[in-house]
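Bumping with the actual sequence this time:
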Amino acid sequence: MAFWLWIVLAIVVVIIAGVLLSRVRIRLRYSRSGHLDQLVVVVQALYGLFHYQIIVPSIMIRGWNIVYREKSTGGLMAEHEGKQKKGEISKRTIRHHAKAYRSILQTTREFKRWALETLKKIECTRWRLDFQVGTGDAAVTAVITGLLWAVSGCAAGAAGEIVTLKTSPQSRVSPNYSGTEFTVVWEADFRIRLTSMLWSFIKLGKRTIRLSKALKAWRSWLTGPEQA
């Protein structure tokens, strides 16, 4: 009896160790062609047992507001069917999150330092930013092409300062001298070990000064202004 108990215990320990050593993987893809935008976010964890996908098929600017539609699918063992909802980013939304962020700063010691340290634990394993541009004027197109090369380099450099690059950033700027066009495609893959995430949350808890106010601030940050 004791032998089988030790066997079961060893299996449990191996499973727990495997889970803790697993990685959370995030894939992002944003594309814009003409007036059409699309954002795709894919999250995988537990060796693929958890798979979650968010698709934003349209992003529209109405006045000072950004309106979008969102469809999400998946979950643990991909058991959840697709859900669709509409969202909006307005001045009210920005003020709401800014207020929540100030509350988080007040209730957490050195929050910015914690955030930067956590982001550095994220590894970027793929980075690609492509542009296609045309203005109808060859000279102007050439100038904008050079500017976009600079933008691409600055974006890759900024990413390297925020997260840990495990790949060489790729980019391409294709000028269209015979027509009017603007297309951008950004693709990036990120990963972080589950143990690193858990340890970061533990350190966040240690830095928290007023727990009840901090929880209220985080809840306010995660919800929209209508639910806050």
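The tokens above came from a reply further down the thread. Strands lie at 23-33, 36-45, 50-62, 65-76, 83-89, 123-135, 164-165, 170-175, 180-193.
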